[in-house]
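Hey,
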Amino acid sequence: MTIHVLVLGDSPVRLWGLSSIERLRRQLREIEGLTLVESVDALPATGRHMLLNARYLFELRTLSDLKTHDNALLICPLEGGVAGAVVDSDHLQAALDCMEGRQDPASAPLALMKPEDLTAFNAALLSAQPPVLEPVTDARKTELENRLYGNAYKGITDLVTKFLWPRPAKQAVHVAASMGMSPNTVTTIGFILVLAACYLFLQGQYLAGLAAGWIMTFLDTVDGKLARVTVQSSKFGHLYDHIIDLVHPPFWYIFWGMSLGAIDPVWGLNQPEMYWLIIGGYVGGRAVEGVFPLLCGCNVFTWRPFDAWFRLVTARRNPCLILLTLSAVIGRPEWGFIAVTFWTVLTTLALLARLIQGLLARLRGGPLESWLNAEDVAVGPNASAYRVFGSTRGAYGD
């Protein structure tokens, strides 16, 4: 059923280059079942309605979760104002009166909600933070831009993306947003660097290839954050970025190995056999990551704190690039190739073991649930892991 949405008010403050109304327009286009109208008179006489106060900052999760409620007001905890409402036609006038200050929300026949009453766990970003709802003021512009950027950052990811890239990537996102650059443009630059790294690795120009590779991984962080903070995510952009990320890593490793010439067998394995180990290990690992949610009910890296720690070093592109970089720096590139080969196999075997454990746990107790969904996650036995993985703290800094 369609919910008709009316935006009230405005704010002169632009966050990441967008006005409040333009940000809301872009967000509403991304949420199925919401239709924007331009005035109260355009709201139909029957059905469900959503009212949004443009003097507040929302994120997609806030709006998506709000639409699942009925006859409720969304209250900003910072200053107690009414930021939004979802009501049927019988309660529309009461909601309008509350939002425009003509009625005390406490006296209205409507439920009162705060952001903490909405879903905190973000399955897409593997993090657990209450959805954003903040008053937009000029004095808080930097703070709010930091909040948007931080909430666009994955909580569970590899160690480079989590600990090294957040602050420099935020500066790059600022530059890209100020230039009006689209996320797909950033992705395309990254794709060119993928091809450059392939060529340079094959030619044995390891340091130049690594420079191209590391810049590409940095831009791979920038494009997604740019899309989220400027609300420019699209199905094409997601697919474009995902295919590049999914396909290129084993080519880098194999081209690196091909540039070495003949190397001595390792534990009886020659180079072509190690190429197949890389391909099999990489494909097997990604396959486990894909089927685990389907068979077990949650992402493999969000099941238990161990899995989040393991994700930091799993043989994805960035941890493998660390191994290749170290080997090139010490002048033994063959060691990097060998290390990537066997680390890929070992981490895939670990993922297969987790899949078996997950299937057994599901058979015993039903679909698995992420530890980040626990009500006491911030203060319970996993509180220390939550402080690391509930969000990426470096992404919220100045």
